[in-house]
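Please annotate the following for my students:
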Amino acid sequence: MARLSGLGDQLEAFSRIVDFETFRPDLDRALAYSDGSKGGRPPFDPVLMFKILVIQTLNNLSDERTEYLINDRLSFMRFLGLALSDRVPDAKTVWLFRERLTQAGAIERLFDRFDATLRNAGYLPMSGQIMDATLVAAPKQRNTNGEKVDLREGRIPQDWQDKPAKLSHKDRHARWTLKFTKAKRQEDGTPPATDLAIPFFGYKSHVSIDRKFRLIRKWKATDAASDGARLREGLLDKTNTASSVWADTAYRSKANEDFMDKEGFVSKVHRKKPHLKPMPRHIQRSNAGKSVIRSRVEHVFADQKSQTGLFVRTVGITRATMRIGLANIVYNMRRFLFLERLNASA
């Protein structure tokens, strides 16, 4: 154990910096376990189970792999407070715990609980906020053209209604979209001669981070085809000490600009190139200055995808929201750990 600590056990640092007991009231409320008066095997401690979800999210593990690695790794056992002889929750128990939290809609409350912890530690939303969205892949669906039309219009295909087993494996909320490679524009501002459009299936994770500490303050999970109109759906943080909002051109619209002006925000959203005209030089310079700040949000998505392998294995927007919400909580935990180390060395 001492050797593990010397090599730099991230989970040990989590235990030292993050007070997981703060999540207990929200976990108890969401799980609503019985008092045990009717007998039966008592459930596992909810905080322990939540820490298992943290392990799972940190390492992008399936339920089965999570069960195996908890039994296999000393660092996982130490983080969970388990001895070698203790009973370890199996894959089905992990699935049921996460499903119960999902159906209770608890992930937003758990995120807000940790956000309150960050604020109490002095990490208030400061210096404005940066918004962006990233695509999160999900298992591809093989549907007929008729089934796709029904799904886009919010209907369940007739053939699926009589087959509940098939319906349970069909994701009716994820959507196809095109992901462009974003080839650089030419020197005169005109689009490149060629660009690649890659089909993508899944969901979209929208986040708003504060400029000062780069912590996620607001977030939302939607299908992959959603656009910049999500800015008006609770993604702006009114508690930030500054009113500036940075975002890319996907969020530039009259409706969004009017909304931000009405709510007291100052728009720093990138301006779009005029149709069939070169980009004016002053707009190029303005966008370049905004990009220096706006690009910081890309580090969040890079961290989530490279370090924790953000991917949706489940079916449906409710479970996808749980997965993305957990990824956002774990990102804030890792960022909190980094900020605390930075302050300690200063």
User: Anything to note?
Assistant: The chain has 15 helices and six strands. The first strand starts at residue 129 and ends at 137. The chain has a mean pLDDT of 90.
